[in-house]
Amino acid sequence: MIRFAQFLILLAFTAISSASARAQGVVEPPLPWKVKLITGETLKGTISKWDFAGVDGSFGHAAWTSFKPDDANRMCKKLMDWREGSQYIQLARMLFALDGGDKLAEAALRDAMKRDQKLDPEIQKLRAEVAEHRRKIVEDRRIAAEKDFQAKVVGADAAVKKDPAPHAQPGSVVPDAPHAQPASVATDAPRAQPWSVATDAQRAEALTDMKADADRWLKQVNLRYSVVEAKYWVVYADLSIDETKDLARRMDDMYQTVAQMFALPEGLNIFHGKAVVIISATEPHYRAIEMAAFNSMPPPGAIGLCHMVGPKVVVTAYKSDDANRFMATLVHEASHGFMHRYGSPSRLPSWADEGYAEYVAAESFPNSTTKGDRKPQGLQWIRSGTNNVLNVLRMNYEDGSWPGPDAIGYAIGYLTVDYLMQTNRQGFGEWVKDVKAGLSWEEALQKRFGWSAAQLAQAVKVRYRARD
Where are the domains of the chain? Predict the structure, then answer.
């Protein structure tokens, strides 16, 4: 019995010494091992050293990230001191770094708690570190994608060196619609300043600021609105919560439609935080909001407006009796906000700014009134034979000429954008990028279509004077 007791004491001492050696990274004697790496190769040999970064042995060095989570977990447990809860925390840290290792990592943390309840603060700290690390990875990827996108919109060279396509001299009017071809353009136009790419913290701060603005305005007019935060919008509506949710969903759908038109990276939110949309149930409430928020009064007949204040986008409207006209207006105004935030603050010419908003309203939902309103008006105007499309292309916000008699600019702008999209959809997108990058719209038109403004006007006239 004495000898057996001495043997148990010796065995316990040997186990402690061995565990201590392994905990320090030395494996005595070297441990034979054979396992497949994630690359498919087989690791075979003996392990002589280890830590929670990897193993060393006759095969050289192998990081734990070289193994599948199950194999890394099994191997590490053979090497670590299974009695030490702190080592299970280190095991969990290693497993969290492996793709698909989360469940095993959580099991390791449970094992740590079984061994020492006092480790809970350290465990919670590790979970927070892992969550922050992963958030940062997602943020870094998003920022990199946004910077790449910004570079494509406003950072590329202004000129594409190609042989000039044959076309009439600028200012001339050709007898029929010219064939659209890109042309080389040399320009010294300065680059537009792109919108800054925000961190997650800055985006959260911007969103908080936008919501605070909306809450303040609504308190000023003493109105209660239901609120729904969608992916790209925060919708405040003097409507039932179900109606507000439906509006928010449709607004997100509209954003996706436009994002696809301009090949935005999947899920990219170009807004400053998010855009705010305020929908009133009545025209008086709508006008009260406009006065409280922007100290302005909507023009007669307007049921919606988009306000671009620095990087912020705010859309206001009231739900008129004509539901389809209301949605067409809402999408139109929201499109202005999207275009404001696309690449840079540089603005498209008035005919394209409004024409594109009308185009999006026409394409975003099946019952849009745009095609039934704008298109017939534009066709009749062109077919009168006495009107010049070029005059509309020259109208602008600055000198007050826009939108012209009977607001004809909207109709002709819509037809012009529709024609360019039919002619060369990709070319239109590149034209928008050029303007956003700082080129004049006419210079960009020459670059992407090989047309002068006069040639574009003639092409639109020829296209629509006999065909719908």
Answer: 19-131, 193-345, 366-468
With beta carbons less than 8 A apart as the criterion, state whether 226 and 236 touch: yes
C-alpha distances in Å from residue 445, one per residue of 27, 91, 183, 327, 461: 72, 61, 9, 31, 17
pLDDT at site 170: 31
Distance CA 333, CA 356 (A): 11
**CA dist., res. 61 & res. 83, Å (int):** 26
- What are the φ and ψ backbone dihedral angles of 120, each rounded to 5 degrees? -55, -45
Q: Where are the beta strands (DSSP E) in 211-357?
A: 226-229, 233-237, 275-280, 304-309, 312-318
Report domain 193-345's class. alpha beta
For 59-105, list the strands marked E by DSSP: 60-63
Predicted confidence at residue 22, as pLDDT, reads 42
Residue 174 has pLDDT above 70, yes or no: no
Helix (H, G, I), strand (E, B) or coil at 247: helix
Whole-angstrom distance, CA of residue 112 vs CA of residue 87? 8
User: Can you name the residues that pair with 42 across neighbouring β-strands?
Assistant: 36
Q: Report which of residues 164 and 265 the model is more confident about.
A: 265
Q: Which two tokens stand for residue 260?
A: 């696809």
**Residue 36 β-bridge partners:** 42
Question: Residue 191: pLDDT band by 50, 70, 90 thresholds?
Answer: low
Q: H or E segment at 35?
A: strand 26-36
Angstrom distance (rounded) from CA 272 to CA 268: 12
- Residue 171: band (very low, low, confident or very high) from pLDDT cuts 50, 70, 90: very low
Helix (H) or strand (E) holding 442: helix 441-449
- Express the helix, strand and coil content of the chain in percent, nearest 5 each: 55, 15, 30
Looking at residue 228, its amino acid is V
Compute the distance between CA of residue 407 and CA of residue 109 in angstroms, rounded to an integer. Answer: 68
The pTM (predicted TM-score) of the whole model is 0.78
